[in-house]
């Protein structure tokens, strides 16, 4: 069966690829390929697989955090073999375990990254979403509407579930002025739409002036642009003055290491700041913009004096995903797809996924129709057990 992998430098000549590309990723040469690996065994009557399904993946995509996994393998001179990639998928159920009642063969699904306690693992459905055949616990999958393409499903679950989880926890609605940072990131795009559906006033923060027309096309009326080379303080003050505001009631921030120290002075007393991640997950070139802002002691002192609630958020719960799918089904939530690519455009898929600065939405790779195949002995022997 096919899988998208990053290959350790020492194993590039040993791993046979159907498609291959090399990408300079933050100063490291990363080798990517589509290869055949062994298909998993699945026994629906066994205790091990009773609550699982056998899934055929048609489309997959990467998430931001995956870049750190790639760099780690590509930069390790002692690594051997390859690492299977992929964080989101769209696929069809082929078989179900004997105890599964929520799904049936033929169901079309996306991942369910619920962090609710239960019998299934918490968090992401898989970090091997590109593997063409997978055995997955049924609780980690969610049926998608008939009108949703599987290429859309492969760009939906993580961003939608995370954004809708944050909006639920914030109870944002009419009268709230919500600042969404990194406004063209996938999670932020979903957050913007979820907030607008609930009547909140959305302010989109971006460091890219060229993103403003795109954000306006999504219905965002208020855009604040920060110059990465300039001082953010007068820019934010001027923006708030123009809007006739003292500050923001709520901030939704995917990258707290960039924005938290910059924005706390501009959050209203008793406001809420919610964040779901960090930007600096791997070594990269120095960028002064990342480190501007209050010293940590001043920032936390101000946060306390203003009684600002600082909230961490990891993904969401099943109900968050269900609400997002309902909004999609009722036409209130459109999925932003930058591109859907397939065989012959593998290098473009990798480059746009990891390096494009003008990407608008997710980049999805779709497998062409063919029977899943077993791997060669050479490829099997090369696998990294990570």
From TrEMBL:
Gene3D superfamilies: Medium-chain alcohol dehydrogenases, catalytic domain (3.90.180.10)
Every Enoyl reductase (ER) domain range: 33-365
Family annotation (SMART domains): PKS_ER
One Pfam family linked to the record: ADH_N
Descriptive protein name: Zinc-binding alcohol dehydrogenase family protein
PANTHER family to which the protein is assigned, alphabetical: QUINONE OXIDOREDUCTASE-LIKE PROTEIN 2, SHORT-CHAIN DEHYDROGENASE/REDUCTASE
